[in-house]
Design brief:
With 256 residues, the chain is α/β, with parallel strands linked by helices. It contains eleven helices and eight strands. It has a single domain, classed as TIM Barrel, CATH 3.20.20. An eight-stranded parallel beta sheet has the order 7-6-5-4-3-2-1-8. α3 links the parallel β3 and β4. It is globular, with a radius of gyration of 17 Å.
């Protein structure tokens, strides 16, 4: 991390876990553990937990995010939630383009771009996910694939709007598998993403861009990962569901 140039952000992605009572209990346990964090702390929770999370985190340093949003403001899109609905609630962050959305729900680079622009327009901070499959890495096309995903996702996003975007590099082969990219592999791809931002915008925009690592970061490997110069925090899955584990990751980012 380089905190002199950009923010370090640890964001928890709860995925489809926790009912309201469980969510309140987890946040209650988490609050005192991260109260002194010197990095930004975000929890992205299921839609049904948003109001619970907003109430439980009021007055704290923990920000609340959603796990997805639609690209239209309103209309006949049964089961979807708009970005404006989220901001009206008080939600500040939203995850866009997570690999599970791409893999299971037909998300494409084009729809990721549409959702990203809609979220920015609504005033949300976007955690934009990019990353390669194991086959892509084995075929040596990680750099090309991640660059393409980044370029398409940020199409027509201005340099000013870019300030509302965090990029999360999540190698798909390391999500929920227990496998983790080495610290050097994670840093290498985060640096590639930063170079793409420099090409699209300029070096100042690239230097200011927070780029997280999102592939099975946990309490044991967080310190090594965030010590890398181009890894500015993490998008945390399983470890975000345990207050103690998540707080260890926050502490690693705070001390880094």
């Amino acid at each position: 991390m380089n905190k002199t140039l950009r923010k370090a952000v640890i964001a928890g992605n709860w995925k489809m876990n926790k009912n309201r009572a469980e969510a309140k209990a987890l946040i209650t346990d988490l609050k005192p553990l991260v109260a002194d964090a010197s990095c930004d702390v975000v929890i992205c929770v299921p839609y049904t937990n948003l109001e619970t999370a907003l109430a439980a985190t009021e007055g704290t340093n923990i920000k609340v995010g959603a796990e997805n949003c639609h690209f239209e403001k309103s209309g006949a899109f049964t089961g979807e939630i708009s970005a404006d609905m989220l901001t009206e609630m008080g939600v500040e962050y939203v995850i866009i383009g997570h690999s599970e959305r791409r893999q299971y729900f037909g998300e494409t680079d084009v729809t990721v771009n549409k959702r990203t622009k809609a979220a920015i327009a609504a005033g949300l901070n976007v955690i934009l996910c990019v990353g390669e499959m194991l086959e892509d890495r084995e075929n040596g096309i990680t750099a090309e694939l991640v660059a393409m995903q980044t370029k398409i996702a940020l199409k027509d996003v201005s340099k000013e709007e870019l300030k509302q975007v965090i990029i999360a590099y999540e190698p798909v082969w390391a999500i929920g598998t227990g496998k983790t990219a080495t610290a050097e592999q994670a840093n290498e791809v985060c640096a590639i993403i930063r170079s793409v931002i420099a090409q699209m915008y300029d070096q100042a925009a690239a230097d200011a861009m927070t780029i997280q690592y999102g592939g099975s970061m946990n309490a044991k490997n967080a310190e090594e990962l965030v010590a890398q110069p181009d890894v500015d925090g993490g998008l945390i899955g399983g470890a975000a569901l345990k207050a103690e584990d998540f707080s260890v990751i926050v502490k690693a980012a705070s001390n880094g």
